[in-house]
Amino acid sequence: MFMRSHYLYLLLGLLLLLLVPGYFILLKSQNPEIEIIFSGNEENLSEGTCQNCSYISLMDSPNQESWLNFSGDVFYVNLEAITEEDYCENVKYSYCPGMYSELYPGCQNKSVIVVLGDSYSEGAGVERNETFSYFLNNLSKSTVLNLAHGGFNTRLEVESLEKVGLLNPPKYVILQFFDNDYEDPLILYSLWYSVFEILNSKEVHYDKYQVAHEIYDYYGRIFFPRHKAEHIQNNIMNPLMLLDNLSLEYGFKVIFLYIPSIHFEREIMNFINSKDWIVLDIKEEIGFKFEPPFTLSERDLHFSKMVHRLVAKKLYSLLNHE
After folding, report:
1. 161 and 281 inside one domain
2. Which residues constitute the domain of residue 64?
3. Which residues pair with 91 in a beta bridge?
4. Which of 139, 251, 261, 312 has its C-alpha lying 20 to 30 A from 293's C-alpha?
5. Residues 190, 178 share a domain
6. Are 58 and 194 in contact (CB under 8 A)?
7. Are residues 221 and 239 in the same domain?
């Protein structure tokens, strides 16, 4: 009888979620008493929905109560309400353009190659001497400057080039592009760090990969579509136009290295194809797939050492044919 009542309450709860307007991602952690709800509708986070919420405020997120709160064992997240004042200080620092650079010195009389990109180019999951920048440096005997950093979008990458990469004008700039370059890391990772900090403070046992996946899912499927035009223009298209202008001003060649994913916006690819840039599609060139041995694991989809080495060889071949 108890089990039947338990399932009945569960069924009623699911029906209620379906009837409430807006979009929910309901995530249960390994602790059955904890739930996280990402809401796609501000009305769902009104005072009537959360009358007795005990708001959580972190030292570096003064206005967090407007978009993230906690009631009992339920977290309510509304990404639409986040403001610049909510950005965590460690996120502001981590995603400052020009903060990260790794120089692989080559022959001084050879050209400088600057690498722009995100965690794929930075070398997440492999050693510092196992990135394609490192391998390319050894193959080309050129000076390679790697400005890539995990979470960077095209805007931050090109700003890094302006601040650091042009101090010694390069001959080549390699721009590694991925679908998620539309993201604003200040928003996304402020949410990321805040949720994890709260879960850890409550000593919740959870699957970090699962929680992270739901955060990305909410951002990509709910928040981004509402701001799509603005995100693509500010975080991708404007920086691409700036990069093209810089290439003409400083006389370097752009190599557009992209990782095939679900899709690319037609506007982006039309722009790339209209320029005198070298395009390297690693799916076409090395048969890349989002699975081992091309990736580190089934869950971690970053490049394996094998892929870094193959990408370096393809880039070196392109440079030799220039």
Report:
1. yes
2. 17-83+184-227
3. none
4. 139
5. no
6. yes
7. no
169 in the same domain as 106: yes
For residue 221, give both structure tokens: 């499927």
pLDDT in tens, 280-311: 999 999 999 999 999 999 989 999 999 999 99
Where does residue 236 rank: exposed (0-12), middle (13-18), buried (19+ CB within 10 A)?
buried
The residue behind tokens 């353009």 is 97
Query: Do 172 and 258 sit in the same domain of this protein?
Result: yes
Structural domain includes residue 164: yes
Domain final residue, candidates 227, 260, 286: 227
Cα distance from N-terminal residue to C-terminal residue, the chain: 76
Per DSSP, the residues of 169-181 read --SEEEEEE-GGG
pLDDT in tens, 211-254: 788 888 888 888 888 899 999 999 999 999 999 999 999 999 99
Nearest to 258 by CA among 118, 103, 111, 104: 118
Task: Give the three-state DSSP class for 112.
Answer: strand
Helix then strand count (H, E) for the chain reads: 13, 10
Helices (H), 141-263: 154-160, 185-201, 208-218, 224-226, 228-232, 238-250
**CA distances from residue 85 to 4, 64, 88, 196 in whole angstroms, order as listed:** 48, 9, 8, 19
